[in-house]
Amino acid sequence: MRSKVHVKICGITSTADMDATIRYGTHYAGLMFFDKSPRFTSLNLAKKLSLHAGNKIKKVAVTVNLNNQTLDEIVKKVPLDFIQLHGKEPPERVLEIKTRYKLPVIKAIGISEKADLKSISLFNDVADQLLIDAKSPSSSILPGGNGLNFDWKLLKDFKFQCPWLLAGGLNSGNAAEAIALTGATQLDLSSGVEKAPGVKDEEKISMFMSSI
């Protein structure tokens, strides 16, 4: 049975993990196309996972500053429901991708302080959804999936103009608090339900979904 809170589990790398993600009622599965990530999936693997999932879950291509040639290959080969942009794509690029591929776009925005909230308004009219994540430390090569959270109180009483997901260091022990502080109705996580980078833990997925 699906939770009223939509959950996106990112970095699916095996059919077993895809099955577990579906089994516990999550809404989205993220396929990682950032080659520096331990959760990276090749085109062939991503196609296999997407076809395996069928229409049981929304498939999201997680990308970082990709050019049209690479995106063309991904969209042509892998059945998708969303494209997620987790790099430094400006609003014009978000709109270009949305128009070119006729797929809804999720734009990730990193937050570490109140001033960062100003950037949200730049994407309200071009993105279909926003993903509010902890800003990556300068030492990290990963734009997300670092298992870090930010001060969720920054989002208290913030009025979003479009659907959004909360990400950053979520796990079964803090998800309820995150929802209470931010009013989030969608959550995104990866490392919080893993036993190793890129390897999901079915028990942790079950515990997480039970916690919300």
Could you explain how this protein is built, in words?
The protein is of the alpha/beta class and 212 residues long. It has a single domain (6-211), classed as TIM Barrel. Helices cover 30% and strands 22% of the residues. It contains seven helices and ten strands. The protein has helices at 15-23, 43-53, 68-77, 91-101, 120-123, 175-182, 202-211; strands at residues 6-10, 28-32, 58-63, 82-85, 105-111, 129-134, 164-167, 186-189, 194-196, 199-200. Strands 1-2-3-4-5-6-7-8 form an eight-stranded parallel β-barrel, surrounded by four helices. A two-stranded antiparallel ribbon has the order 9-10. Strand 4 (82-85), helix 4 and strand 5 (105-111) form a beta-alpha-beta unit. Helix 1 packs parallel to helix 2 (43-53). It is globular, with a radius of gyration of 16 Å.
